[in-house]
Amino acid sequence: MIRMPLATASLLAIAISLAGCGDSKDKAAAPQAPTPTASAAAATGAIDEAAAKAVVAHYADMVFAVYSDAESTAKTLQTAIDAFLAKPNDETLKAAKAAWIAARVPYLQSEVFRFGNTIIDDWEGQVNSWPLDEGLIDYVDKGYEHALGNPGATANIIANTQVQVGEDKVDVKDITPEKLASLNELGGSEANVATGYHAIEFLLWGQDLNGTGPGAGARPASDYLTGAGATGGHNDRRRAYLKAVTQLLVKNLEEMVGNWKPNVADNYRATLEKEPAETGLRKMLFGMGSLSLGELAGERMKVSLEANSPEDEQDCFSDNTHNSHFYDGKGIRNVYLGEYTRVDGTKMTGASLSSLVAKVDPATDTALKADLAATEAKLQVLVDHAAKGEHYDQLIAADNAAGNQIVRDAIASLVKQTGSIEQAAAKLGISDLNPDNADHEF
């Protein structure tokens, strides 16, 4: 068991929630940053309000930039998918997969914004929900194990124009973005995910049937052919599904970009910037701590490691999980340092949490920056091993002691940095941050 720093001892809980690609969904709604107490608000008076406002404003600039990059890379993915559908072959499928992986880079750096910002959490389910029961969408292997009690686990929308869910029949004749959006959590099961990055991932890669051995999903391009050489069956509907779900992803990202666009009188960003600076600082720090502890260390790493289960990894079809973990960690560090490197290579810098903390207590700032750098280095080890052919699902295999230790080291670093995040928050007068631990004990 990993020992938690004293600063995070209050975050312990007693349950471990198991989830995976094809098992029950791991995410309830993300807890939101607690309302500041009067004492915390009073303590924040020691922080220069103008300086704090500048930090919140720069944070909003970064959020806008990250989602703008996520939107632009999703449009690039859409172009690659259109080219693949126009001429399905190994080359165009490979290009579409590469575009999907590239599109994940900015989006993953946005996940730190989810916690504390209700408007993002309410929206996120359409965009990045996982794990999913892929049998809802398309054909699956005969040995497929779905979430227990999921009435839509083998509905196979692509193969049917009407699906039975319990006593209800659902018309899915027309595969449109709107129809797919309505099918999320079909029959009340959170494992029924019909949209977002991971639905697209499954449609491009197919199931990964390699267990903890090497190799990702291997869906053939011929699943998208019509006529001679076609495989998979119902290919017109599979083509329609891939096109519609990608259109919906772009539309959803455009919506979030609009929520953070500057100089709009009535969008979410304008509301945030009108609030006291302490509110924005709390959202920033709560997002950092909650992604670091409950989500990344817990749901995304601890669960899969303890179960030694590739079904519980995040990008389980593509074997891109190492990048997902790395860029989630990068997003946390971005928020504290006020830095973000855009997809065109431009580096954003500006007023930061780090600058505020350094003015109050340089030692606390130095410690947190060191912890953030140490975590990034531990997550980089996952990336380095993947580059050498040993992916995350291999690292968590029951008989891979060295690989298990690599993952444990990353978890320990995330837990340690969460303690430092709480200490930094306290120095700014935010003494009741309480990052979400997602009911995990570390």
Helix/strand order: HHHHEEHHHHHHEEHHHH
Helical residue percent band? 40-55%
Q: What's the total helix number?
A: 14
What summary fits the major beta sheet? 2 strands, antiparallel
Task: From the alpha carbons, calculate the radius of gyration and give it in angstroms.
Answer: 22 Å
N- to C-terminal separation? 6 Å
- Global outline: globular
Average of the residue pLDDT scores: 90
- Which runs of at least 5 residues are low in confidence (pLDDT < 50)? 1-28, 37-45
Tally the beta strands. Answer: 4
Helix-strand makeup class: mainly alpha
The side-by-side strand order for the widest beta sheet comes to: 1-2
User: What share of residues are in beta strands?
Assistant: under 5%
Summed up, what is this model?
This protein is mostly helical.
List the helices and strands and how they pair.
Blueprint: H1 38-43, H2 49-86, H3 90-108, H4 118-128, E1 162-165, E2 168-171, H5 177-182, H6 197-205, H7 235-260, H8 268-274, H9 277-307, H10 321-337, E3 340-341, E4 347-348, H11 353-360, H12 362-387, H13 392-395, H14 401-427
Antiparallel strand pairs: 1-2, 3-4
Helix pairs in contact: 2-3, 2-7, 2-9, 3-6, 3-10, 4-7, 6-7, 9-10, 9-14, 10-12, 11-12, 12-14
